[in-house]
TrEMBL record, chain A:
One Gene Ontology term from the biological process aspect of the record: DNA-templated transcription initiation
Keyword Transcription regulation among UniProt keywords: yes
Any GO MF annotation of the entry: sigma factor activity
Protein name: Sigma-70 family RNA polymerase sigma factor
Ranges for domain RNA polymerase sigma-70 region: 13-78
Residue ranges constituting the RNA polymerase sigma factor 70 region 4 type domain according to the UniProt record: 100-151
Length: 162, 277
């Protein structure tokens, strides 16, 4: 029984490894840190597997472990490249309409960014994001609207929430 | 001009195109391999340990049997040096498992008392700290609206492993393993000369040039696979220190141990080097 759930957990993380890595990289912006965060989360996952009673929640559960790991790593370290060093160094043709947006996304508060990444890049439902981030649904919605406002993105309510 | 919806689509495309490093495959598998790899030797160890455990249990129950067993040369030496207490505590905020080793029946009561007390202090202190932290984390989690049923309890494990045990030498490892925001392992080693009651040093085992011997082995290993270690100027290995942790294996050789992150990235884990005489 315990052995089966370990095998299923292994199958899950192997199948979704790229997804886990992308998510980690979006926080840490560094391949070594992202690799380490993915591995550390798997180690924690293995250790805590017996506490996962409902295996249908495996995806939410694993995402939560990884997001927590990334957030705590962000709290521990400062950004490796100070933003000032980027000023002017960016090639002219890259300074298109996307440039400001990428930059604002990178400087967004990690809690707000989590909602944006999970909602729009990972296509997660808001209810799922609430479970992943341990936050009430209303808080997730507030964070989503605040994030969109800071990114100066105007979406219809349907585009934002559906 | 792109619409805002299209801008988000562009960001998503860029996100999905995040380059995936080839090492990911290994990084994901390694934690499971480690589990499996250690299964075989561990089973052997378990067998040895369970003999010992049953034996200790019988010993504690039956003084006459203990007295008889002490006469049996091989197993007798094992029996007189290690007994243990085992406990398990479970609450909403934490899981605690401890197997606490205790030395007993050597010819040196002072040594026994000193080491047993040190072990007990280490465990009491570690446990009190961990308990407090676990309770704090749990309270903070619940206070901020977390569902108490979903809190992942902090897990603390104390355990030990006998590395070698003969009539003359006892070498064992005390392990403290804690999992919360990230996992954390602390290893402490005890190497005891049962004839004198003194701690055994690397110099005792390897002679006055023990540092050269250790450095040679470690440096050879690093030269073989430099990619697994930190470079010298980035906090890597620059030579062995006087307080280097080690244990003595079954072959009687010292095995020096470097904790995770000490001389290599976390992905390399705990590193051990056997130093042949």
């Amino acid at each position: 029984m315990a052995h089966n759930s370990l095998a299923r957990f292994q199958a899950y993380v192997e199948e979704h490894q790229a997804e886990l890595y992308r998510l980690a990289y979006s926080y840490l912006k560094n391949r070594e840190d992202a690799l380490d965060a993915v591995q550390e989360s798997i180690v924690r996952g293995i250790d805590h597997l017996p506490s996962l009673r409902d295996e249908s929640r495996l995806r939410v559960w694993m995402t939560r472990i990884l997001v927590n790991e990334c957030l705590s790593r962000l709290r521990r370290k400062r950004p490796s490249v100070p933003l000032e060093e980027w000023d002017g160094a960016e090639p002219e043709h890259d300074r298109d309409e996307m440039w400001d947006l990428r930059r604002s996304l990178d400087t967004l508060d990690p809690k707000l960014r989590t909602v944006v990444v999970l909602r729009f890049f990972e296509d997660r439902k808001l209810e799922e994001i609430a479970q992943i981030t341990h936050a009430p649904l209303s808080t997730v919605k507030t964070r989503l609207y605040r994030a969109l406002a800071q990114l100066r993105l105007h979406l219809t309510e349907e585009e934002a929430l559906s | 001009m792109k619409t805002d919806r299209e801008k988000l689509e562009t960001l998503k495309r860029e996100y999905m195109e995040t380059p995936i490093p080839p090492e990911l495959e290994f990084a994901v598998r390694a934690p499971f391999l480690k589990k499996k790899k250690s299964r075989l030797p561990q089973q052997l160890l378990c067998l040895a340990a369970s003999v010992c455990v049953l034996f200790v249990a019988a010993l504690n129950l039956n003084p006459a049997f203990a007295a008889a067993a002490a006469q049996v040369p091989v197993i007798g030496s094992m029996a007189r040096v290690l007994t243990f207490t085992e406990y398990h505590i479970e609450s909403d905020s934490q899981l605690l498992n401890a197997r606490v080793p205790e030395i007993d029946g050597t010819d040196f009561p002072d040594l026994e008392e000193r080491i047993n007390e040190e072990i007990q202090q280490k465990i009491d202190a570690g446990m009190a700290q961990a308990q407090e932290r676990a309770a704090q984390e749990y309270d903070a989690y619940v206070a901020t609206g977390g569902n108490p049923d979903e809190f992942i309890p902090v897990t603390i494990t104390f355990d030990y492993e006998v590395k070698s045990c003969t009539d003359d030498i006892l070498s064992f490892e005390l392990q403290r393993f804690e999992v919360r925001a990230s996992s954390f392992t602390e290893l402490t080693y005890y190497n005891i000369d049962l004839n004198t009651g003194e701690s055994i040093t690397l110099e005792d085992l390897l002679g006055p040039d023990w540092k050269d011997k250790v450095n040679a082995v470690v440096n050879t290993a690093i030269d073989e696979h430099p990619e697994f270690y930190f470079a010298k100027d980035q906090g890597g290995f620059t030579g062995v220190s006087d307080s280097r942790r080690f244990y003595i294996n079954e072959a009687g050789n010292p095995v020096v141990v470097f904790q995770k992150y000490e001389i290599a990235p976390g992905s390399s884990g705990v590193l051990e080097f056997e130093i042949p005489d």
